[in-house]
């Protein structure tokens, strides 16, 4: 088996998406980003959390897309939303006052205190790589009641200290969020293709609390840029069920199917 939690029955990314979906509860209000977070949130809504309220940064509230959106501006989000509000209202009314239960984030770099970098790799003034930037992530990290981080577990991404703090986790330790006046609790879990990390209640440093099936502690440590502690109550994630896999594989992104790109298509054998 390779570095990630793949098996003949499912891929590492499928395991990661399903683990992330399981972390969501029915009735929560979830601020959703595009990519893995959107996949996980929509999967949870289809499986065990039909009352999960999805909020996208573009202003769609309680949206229920039949397919996964290409972007936060995808029309499928508007078509299936309970209502659509302005972007300032999303942030000023919903996010900043703490009305969002959970926010999903990802990044290019993550450090041991859950700080996220999506700005630059290297020195800020002369970066090796300039990344897409923050978007609404800093507000999500600051104000959601809790944050879940979903990203692939690689040594270049899981670093001792991020090159730039785009979205603050626990700063330099357990007191920083309070000192900064941040409303939300911060990152409560990091879900990767290898396992799950959670903050130590005393130090706020991320600790390995669960391994995905077939993954060893040594594999996770080898892909982590700090001396990763392991919980004494280390668990093994349940493998994906047939229903979870069937539902996940039945979800597709808008425009990803050949038929979606041909609006004038006709069924085989049809006559005009």
Automatic annotation (TrEMBL):
Listed SMART domains: CoA_trans
Extent of Basic and acidic residues compositional bias: 257-272
GO molecular function: CoA-transferase activity
Gene3D superfamilies listed in its UniProt record: Glutaconate Coenzyme A-transferase
Keyword Manganese: no
InterPro entries, A to Z: CoA_trans_fam_I, NagB/RpiA_transferase-like
Region described as Disordered: 250-272
Domain of life assignment: Bacteria
Stored Pfam families: CoA_trans (PF01144)
Keywords of the record: Transferase
Similarity-based family: Belongs to the 3-oxoacid CoA-transferase subunit B family.
Name of this chain's protein: CoA-transferase subunit beta
Organism whose genome encodes this protein: Pseudonocardia bannensis
